[in-house]
Design brief:
This protein is mostly helical and about 150 residues long. The protein has 7 helices and no strands. Helix content is about 65%, strand content about 0%.
């Protein structure tokens, strides 16, 4: 029992010291009022991750794709190697014109976008899998060849 009491005392002192110093690292353990902030940050993180979808491309490879999109498909964003909404809108314009994409030009690389991408990759970049809208290892490998 004594070790638990000592541990609680030390933890309490650390929390108080952290609050006094304004430390963000210990703020989450000190007050329930900080929990919504932590939950908001956590909830916002998946949305930020979903905004970029490189399907396994390196930054350099994704920059090559963005240069292609800028040259031919109206991409005007930065060449930063992050295939975000604007990159995918430009890619969807390409896929709609030549590869059977019929969805909205919304920048969401969902299953319909991936199916059209797979058709492009099957025609010219060695993709041998099904046109299933799943960006599995075969799709990713062919997309790397496209990006090279």
């Amino acid at each position: 029992m004594r070790p638990n009491a000592l541990g609680r005392t030390i933890a309490g002192l650390v929390a108080v010291a952290g609050l006094a110093a304004g430390s963000v690292a210990t703020a989450g353990t000190s007050f329930a009022a900080t929990v919504p902030t932590a939950q908001t940050a956590t909830a916002a993180q998946p949305a930020a991750l979903a905004a970029t979808q490189n399907f396994g491309l390196t930054t350099a490879e994704a920059k090559n794709v963005q240069k292609f999109l800028a040259d031919y498909w109206g991409y005007t964003g930065s060449i930063d190697g992050q295939l975000g909404t604007n990159s995918w809108k430009a890619f969807q314009r390409c896929l709609a014109k030549y590869w059977g994409y019929t969805g909205d030009i919304d920048g969401d690389p969902g299953p319909n976008t991936v199916k059209a991408l797979q058709r492009l990759l099957k025609a010219d970049y060695g993709y041998t899998g099904d046109i299933d809208g799943i960006a599995g290892s075969g799709t990713r490998a062919a997309f790397k060849r496209f990006a090279a």
